[in-house]
Design a protein that fits this description.
The complex is a heterodimer of chains A (658) and B (754).
Chain A lengths: L1 E4 L9 E5 L2 E5 L20 H4 L17 E4 L2 E4 L20 E3 L9 H7 L5 E5 H19 L13 H4 L21 H8 L2 E4 L5 E3 L3 E7 L7 E6 L4 E5 L22 E4 L10 H17 L4 E4 L5 H15 L7 E4 L3 H10 L6 H7 L8 H6 L3 E4 L5 H5 L5 E4 L9 H8 L6 E4 L6 H5 L8 E4 L8 H11 L3 E5 L24 E3 L3 E4 L9 E3 L1 H6 L3 E4 L2 E3 L5 E5 L2 E5 L30 E2 L4 H10 L5 E5 L3 E6 L4 E6 L3 E4 L4 H13 L2 E2 L1
Parallel strand pairs in A: 3-6, 6-7, 7-8, 12-13, 13-20, 14-17, 14-18, 15-16, 15-17, 18-19, 20-21, 23-27
Antiparallel strand pairs in A: 1-2, 1-22, 2-3, 4-5, 9-10, 10-11, 11-12, 24-25, 26-27, 28-33, 29-30, 30-31, 31-32
Helix pairs in contact in A: 2-5, 3-5
Chain B lengths: L2 H15 L8 H17 L2 H7 L1 H11 L6 H14 L7 H4 L4 H23 L12 H15 L3 H17 L4 H18 L6 H13 L2 H4 L2 H12 L2 H13 L5 H21 L27 H18 L11 H15 L8 H10 L3 H14 L6 H16 L5 H17 L11 H17 L5 H18 L3 H9 L2 H7 L6 H16 L19 H11 L3 H17 L2 H4 L2 H13 L4 H19 L9 H13 L2 H9 L4 H17 L16 H11 L12 H10 L2 H9 L9 H22 L1
Helix pairs in contact in B: 1-4, 1-38, 2-5, 2-38, 3-4, 4-5, 5-7, 7-9, 8-9, 8-10, 9-11, 10-13, 11-13, 11-14, 13-15, 14-15, 14-16, 15-16, 15-17, 16-19, 17-19, 17-20, 19-21, 20-21, 20-22, 21-23, 22-24, 23-26, 25-26, 26-28, 27-28, 28-31, 30-31, 31-34, 33-34, 34-37
Classes of the chains: A alpha/beta (658), B mainly alpha (754).
Main location (chain A): cytoplasm
Organism (chain A): Odocoileus virginianus
Family (chain A): Belongs to the metallo-beta-lactamase superfamily. RNA-metabolizing metallo-beta-lactamase-like family. INTS9 subfamily.
Chain lengths: 658, 754
């Protein structure tokens, strides 16, 4: 069993598991942090961005000044943003049989895999994962395609040139493999390969293994996966949460007794407690608005935003903010808000019950009804008519490199009354802000990451007791900035195996058993014999059929009728000779009684010698030797077949036959 | 004992002695015991037993082995102890599995021992063991057996009995008892593992507090030995107990203090302290410190740190606390613990790494350390340490991860430190460092007042109120506060959905307004709305808030404003009084009504002079009476006399008594010639007394008020009110009746069966 690690990002994993002749890809996350190296794509012409000076080498060489621009001491690529794909060279991706998706954030690289690698298999995911994943992809494509950029910089990627660049460009990995965003056509084609599954549904893969999605509690439709054969069980834990937010709670019990547990998708901010952060978010929002400032919340169009809107729903009246408009701007804002209300079966119990009242499960419906929350596909159109300040704007993209958020950063960045509150943990907020410096706007960092923290992980591992844990190397040591926090790492026995990008791990367990089915008519013919209390044995003569990874014992064919033809028999046509069935023997031979029996039957001059393995009975007169050992008995006589048979029958008297 | 109770007693005893009767609950029995105790204290118990033979019968009856409930058994034993009864009943009882019975038997044993020893000891001074009465010898022998036993419960039982004996008996014989038993106790200390360590510690402390040490200094050696043998967790209570003793050898105190300090010393050791920093244990303990003495499990380590901090917190204010008190290292330790808890400490060793993992995010330790840090503000500290204290407090106040309870404690500790770092009196400003802290504090407070968690908003407001009360007059504070959003936010919180927060906002607004620091409230909701004065705002709360807390808070603020002569009140005091009294008198919450009367009393005192004893000058009195009539104080006061809530009636009674005392007989209105018409007033009072509260009083003449006041027997009323409202229900007679009544039902049912 092998694990091919195609992504080094612990929360955007992409691994391939080879298990029992199947090749299973676990998630295909897309690392978008690469876009932080690019200049933002403004929706409206930005004089500031277009007038940034070109970058020149220390020696004054300016050949890169078209591709690289400098802003407040940082250098950015002036080009269409590009993404860092999972490894495509480590394993032939056309051999991947299935792709299991655990949540909508972990499927963003799907079009690259399904459309460009010769992939012919099936993708499995839950319905909300697919629907919201589609929204995220649609938003991404829309954000990038609606601001066409003529230039595609590539000079800087040359290895010799990259060495000369300042950090972080100098240290960016695998830049040659970075790719531009996919198209909507590719998205649609990729999504058409997905087969929908429900929690706890058992999906057979080629008869060899069974895969099952389990609720992981992190997002609508998010799953962990069980991959098991009859005797082996691998659990794949991706983004999971034990907090009570909107999704169905995490199913922990089904992860028990795994041989291997692959652990990814833990919280990216282990020191920030989501409850505290939500409080911080609300307080800073209220403070800004009370002072007449605007609040900008860069976010994804689905996920934490539902919980934030719910908190605000409870909070705005008490904080006296009910007249402040809340805007949600995304090409998929409307679909996201509506989708969330119809996935009732994927919600937590509390929200499910609301559906029967009937009440919308999420209170943002009421915010929309009362006009407190308004949503728009973009800043153009209706929004510009309705826009009123001070206000709160939720919009993407959290990287601040594309989407409507770029416009608001340019618009509000100059005033210290305004605040940008970062809630998504995927991007470093300092790097995200770098191309907007100098910035007067207040910046608040309230990362809300509801995924498991290390305390929860250690409890989970104690509870489900996997034999081996495999996780990204980042989880096996404290965070670099807090090397003393030994509590911020996975702590288990035996220590977790770690992986990094482009590594192949041999998973530490051997398969020992295979299940074989016996056909009913064959089973019917068996005559078990109890050899010990509770243990019965029967001999089976059968033909073993193996097809589609299933093994079946069938009754042996009847003796072949003599065929008239003169065809020569081929070796492969040989069938086992079933007629000369010899009974199997069991039991042990008590030497003293055996000797007595021999004497009774006329043998005399018998001598017994003890050996390391048993006994030797010497019949001196007959010049014969009977060697009795635990699992064999030999009669050695000098070419006297009659004597041998006599002795053999005496030996057999002491043994059971079946 | 009154005759009625004596009449009921035989029936009660019969009920108690009957195992078939389901005798009322434990509280009933406790109350009965209390009553018997009171009766025996009032008179001779011998007489009591002679007059009520049923009691003796009950005790004898209980002693027979039978199917009695353990509650009754324990009751009877304690009763017997109270009466100092027979002595031959305890041995078989002491091992009873019921905790109540065992404890009662233990107490009885001590009682009997004390009685037995007291007689012969008189005049003889200390007796030798062989001269003790047979009964005492038997008891001591029994205890000796127990102490030598291998069964832990027996040892524990004996230790408990001895603890009680040394704690409650003060005869010289206890010294002899210790001489007799101390070798056995010493032997217990040598066992591994030590049996019943908690009970041993209690015994040692009980002996140490008795008269034994004066004649038997060996005790101190035993204590020292115990301290070194016990685990840190077990030794803590002993060490703390020793340090609280008035009189004990210095060496032992030093050792005990070392035990208490050791966990904190470990904490300090675990973070890289620069060499040369005074350690906690330098000179405090002779033994080399084991750095890894901290327990390996998280819960044990947290427990040890919390109890250590709690012991030291209790010790700090005591006059007999160890001297020199290591203020600086203790401060450093408290700061370090808090840093471990928020993950900002940099551990320098493996122990430190472990501590970090165990303490990070631990709310229990955070609370204990913040409490301790607050207490340490009583002493000074090196400048850089105090800077660290403020820094760590600010970290806690700012951190989004601080739980509401931790935050509250952090606010309290900050306030204490700000108070302690105040500049000498006479200078009208905060010292520069406090001034800097204050600026950051207000920024934090601003954010906390917007918290979605009401507990946080509440403690933020409390903190603001206290800060304003203390520094509201100081220029630096005023300037910083007015430059912040805090006053505006505070008045916005008068509309908070949570009533506790509204109450705290009322208090804060009251305090800010007193100091002239309250900006006119405005919210983004109504930016241009008509602005109300603080007085109007609070009157609105008093008249419209649906919850009691904010209204009570408003009354407290008004009382304070009246007392301190707040400008808004002083402008038109009578109008203010009339409006507030009108609102308070009709309030459904009795505390608001009591506060209303308190306000009225202050008003009265301001009119008539509270300090000067005796009657007020007639002119002033007449003027005051007219003012009181105008604000309709009398209607409120008279009505309150018949209030269904006793404290309101009492307060009103006090108020009227004060007024009557001020209106001397000389200023009788009769002198004026015509007698006032009191009939309508008396008629109204009559109806109010009868419960017809709807009746208005109408216009009142000052003369009529005085006449009515004089005709009323306010003293008698006060005495009646002074008796608790449940004085009838709480009488012993009622108790006996209740017990019997509960059983009476059963009796009826039994009769039905036939």
């Amino acid at each position: 069993m092998k694990l091919y690690c195609l992504s080094g990002h612990p929360t955007l994993p992409c691994n391939v598991l080879k298990f029992k002749s199947t090749t299973i890809m676990l998630d295909c996350g897309l690392d978008m942090t690469s876009t932080l190296n690019f200049l933002p794509l403004p929706l409206v012409q930005s004089p500031r961005l277009s007038n940034l000076p070109g970058w020149s080498l220390k020696d004054g060489n300016v050949f890169l000044d078209k591709e690289l621009k400098e802003c407040s001491g940082h250098v950015f690529v002036d080009s269409v943003p590009e993404f860092c794909l999972p490894e495509t060279e480590l394993i032939d991706l056309s051999t991947v049989d299935v792709i299991l998706i655990s949540n909508y954030h972990c499927m963003m690289a799907l079009p690259y895999i399904t459309e460009h690698t010769g992939f012919t298999g099936t993708v499995y995911a839950t319905e909300p994962t697919v629907q919201i994943g589609r929204l995220l992809m649609e938003e991404l494509v829309n954000f990038i395609e609606r601001v066409p950029k003529a230039q595609s910089a590539s000079l800087w990627k040359n290895k010799d040139i990259q060495r000369l660049l300042p950090s972080p460009l100098k240290d960016a990995v695998e830049v040659s493999t970075w790719r531009r965003c996919y198209t909507m056509q590719e998205v649609n084609s990729a999504l058409s390969k997905i087969q929908l599954v429900g929690y706890s549904q058992k999906i057979e893969l080629f008869g060899a293994v069974q895969v099952t999605p389990l609720s992981s509690g992190y997002a609508l439709g998010s799953s962990n996966w069980i991959i098991q054969s009859h005797y082996e069980k691998v659990s794949y834990v991706s983004g999971s949460s034990l907090l009570t937010t909107h999704p169905q709670p995490m199913d922990q019990a089904s992860l028990k007794n795994s041989d291997v547990l692959i652990l990814t998708g833990l919280t990216q901010i282990p020191t920030a407690n989501p409850d505290g952060m939500v409080g911080e978010f609300c307080s800073n929002l209220a403070l800004t608005v009370r002072n007449g400032g605007n609040v900008l919340v860069p976010c994804y169009p689905s996920g934490v935003i539902y919980d934030l809107l719910e908190c605000l729903y409870q909070y705005i009246d008490s904080a006296g903010l009910s007249s402040i408009p809340f805007y949600f701007i995304s090409p998929v804002a409307n679909s996201s808000l509506e989708f969330s209300q119809i996935f009732a079966e994927w919600l937590c119990h509390n929200k499910q019950t609301k559906v029967y009242l009937p009440e919308p499960p999420f209170p943002h419906a009421e915010l929309i009804q009362t006009n407190k929350l308004k949503h728009y596909p973009s800043i153009h159109g209706d929004f510009s008519n309705d826009f009123r300040q001070p206000c709160v704007v939720f919009t993407g993209h959290p990287s601040l490199r594309f989407g409507d958020v770029v416009h608001f950063m340019e618009l509000w960045g100059k005033s210290s009354l305004n605040t940008v509150i970062f809630t998504e943990p995927d991007f470093s907020y300092l790097e995200a802000l770098a191309p907007y410096q100098p910035l007067a706007m207040k910046c608040i960092y309230c990362p809300i990451d509801t995924r498991l923290n290390f305390i929860q992980v250690s409890k989970l591992l104690k509870e489900v007791q996997p034999l081996h844990v495999v996780c990204p190397e980042q989880y096996t040591q404290p965070p670099p900035a807090q090397s003393h926090r030994v509590d911020l790492m996975v702590d288990c026995q035996p220590p977790a195996m770690s992986y990094r990008r482009a590594e192949v791990l041999a998973l530490p367990f051997k398969r020992r058993y295979e299940k074989i089915e016996i056909m009913p008519e064959l089973a019917d013919s068996l005559v078990p014999m109890e050899i010990k209390p509770g243990i019965s044995l029967a001999t089976v003569s059968a033909v073993l059929h193996t097809k589609d990874n299933k093994h079946v014992l069938q009754p042996p064919p009847r003796p072949a009728q003599p065929t008239g033809g003169k065809k020569r028999k081929r070796a492969s046509d040989d069938i086992p000779d079933c007629k000369v069935l010899k009974p199997l023997l069991s039991g042990s031979i008590p030497v003293d009684q055996f000797v007595q029996t021999l004497e009774k039957h006329g043998f005399s001059d018998i001598k017994v010698e003890d050996t390391a393995k048993g006994h030797i009975v010497l019949l001196q007169e007959a010049e014969t030797l009977i060697q009795i050992e635990e699992d064999s008995t030999h009669i050695i006589c000098d070419d006297d077949e009659v004597l041998r048979v006599r002795l053999r029958d005496l030996v057999l008297k002491f043994l059971q036959k079946f | 004992m009154d005759p009625e109770c004596a009449r009921l007693l035989p029936a009660l005893c019969a009920v108690l002695a009957d195992p078939r009767q389901p005798v009322a609950d434990d509280t009933c029995l406790e109350k009965l015991l209390d009553w018997f105790k009171a009766v025996t204290e009032a008179g001779s118990s011998l007489l009591l037993l002679q007059e009520n033979p049923c009691l003796v019968e009950l005790l004898f009856h209980v002693l027979k082995p039978q199917d009695l409930s353990s509650r009754i058994l324990s009751f009877a034993l304690r009763l017997a102890g109270t009466f100092a009864a027979q002595e031959n009943c305890f041995q078989y009882l002491q091992g009873d599995p019921s905790l109540f019975v065992a404890s009662a038997a233990g107490q009885l044993l001590v009682h009997v021992l004390d009685l037995a020893m007291r007689g012969p000891a008189k005049g003889h001074g200390r007796l030798q063991a062989q001269d003790w009465p047979a009964c005492a010898q038997r008891i001591v022998c029994h205890l000796e057996d127990c102490l030598c036993s291998e069964a832990a419960p027996r040892v524990t039982q004996a230790l408990h009995v001895l603890t009680t004996a040394f704690g409650h008996c003060h005869g010289l014989w206890t010294q002899g008892l210790w001489v007799q038993l101390s070798p056995l106790v010493a032997r217990l200390l040598e066992k591994d593992p030590m049996p019943a360590p908690h009970a041993l510690v209690e015994l040692l402390l009980s002996v140490a507090r008795s008269s034994v040490p004066s004649s038997n200094p060996g005790l101190w050696e035993t204590a020292a030995q115990t301290l070194s043998r016990l685990s840190p967790m077990q030794a803590g209570p002993l060490a703390a107990g020793i340090l609280k003793l008035q009189d004990c050898p210095q060496a032992l105190r030093t050792q005990a203090f070392g035990v208490l300090l050791r966990p904190l010393a470990c904490v300090l050791e675990a973070t890289a302290q620069a060499p040369g920093t005074p350690g906690l244990l330098e000179g405090a303990a002779g033994d080399p410190m084991a750095v890894d003495m901290l327990p390996p499990s998280k819960s044990a380590c947290v427990g040890l740190l919390c109890s250590t901090l709690a012991h030291l917190e209790l010790l700090q204010p005591l006059p007999q606390r160890p001297s020199p008190w290591p203020q600086a290292p203790l401060l450093a330790a408290a700061v370090t613990i808090l840093r471990f808890c928020n993950g900002s400490a940099a551990p320098s060793s493996e122990v430190g790494g472990r501590l970090c993992a165990m303490l990070v995010g631990c709310v229990r330790v955070q609370r204990a350390a913040l409490d301790f840090l607050g207490v340490l503000s009583q002493g000074l500290g090196p400048r850089e340490l105090v800077t660290q204290v403020f820094a760590v407090l600010l970290e806690y106040l700012m951190s989004p991860d601080s739980s509401p309870t931790v935050l509250k404690k952090a606010f309290q500790a900050t306030l204490r430190w700000l108070l302690s770092s105040a500049v000498p009196p006479g200078c009208c400003d905060l010292e520069p460092r406090a001034q800097l802290v204050l600026r950051e504090l207000l920024a934090v407070l601003q954010k906390r007042l917007c918290s979605p968690c009401w507990e946080v908003r509440d403690s933020g407001l409390e903190f603001l109120t206290q800060m304003t009360r203390r520094w509201g007059g100081q220029a630096g504070f005023r300037q910083t506060l007015l430059a912040s959003e805090v006053p505006k936010l505070a008045s916005q919180l008068l509309q908070d959905p949570e009533s506790y927060v509204r109450a705290s906002a009322v208090a804060a607004a009251g305090q800010l307004s007193s100091q002239g620091l309250l900006a006119a409230p405005s919210s983004p909701e109504h930016p241009a709305g008509p602005q109300k004065t603080p007085l109007e705002e609070l009157l609105l709360v008093l008249t419209t808030d649906s919850e009691g807390f904010p209204r009570r808070a408003a009354m407290r603020v008004f009382t304070e404003w009246l007392r301190d002569g707040h400008m808004a009140v002083a402008e038109d005091r009578e109008r203010f009084m009339a409006r507030v009294l009108q609102a308070a008198s009709g309030d459904l919450d009795w505390e608001v009504r009591v506060q209303g009367l308190e306000l009225a009393l202050i008003f009265l005192q301001q009119l008539l002079g509270a300090r000067s004893p005796g009657a007020a000058p007639p002119g002033a009195l007449a003027q005051a009476l007219r003012a009181l009539c105008r604000v309709q104080l009398f209607e409120f006061a008279f009505r309150s006399l018949f209030d269904c809530d006793r404290p309101v009636a009492q307060k009103s009674c006090d108020l009227l008594l004060f007024l009557r005392a001020k209106a001397a007989p000389s200023s009788s209105p009769q002198e004026a010639g015509d007698s006032p018409d009191v009939a309508p007033v008396e008629a109204a009072l009559q109806r109010w007394r009868a419960g017809e509260q709807g009746q208005p009083l109408g216009e009142l003449a000052p003369e009529a008020v005085l006449a009515v006041l004089r005709s009323m027997d306010l003293e008698a009323l006060r005495d009646t009110l002074a008796e608790s409202s449940d004085h009838v229900e709480r009488s012993p007679q009622s108790l006996l009746q209740d017990v019997l009544a509960a059983v009476g039902v059963l009796g009826d049912n039994e009769a039905d069966c036939y």
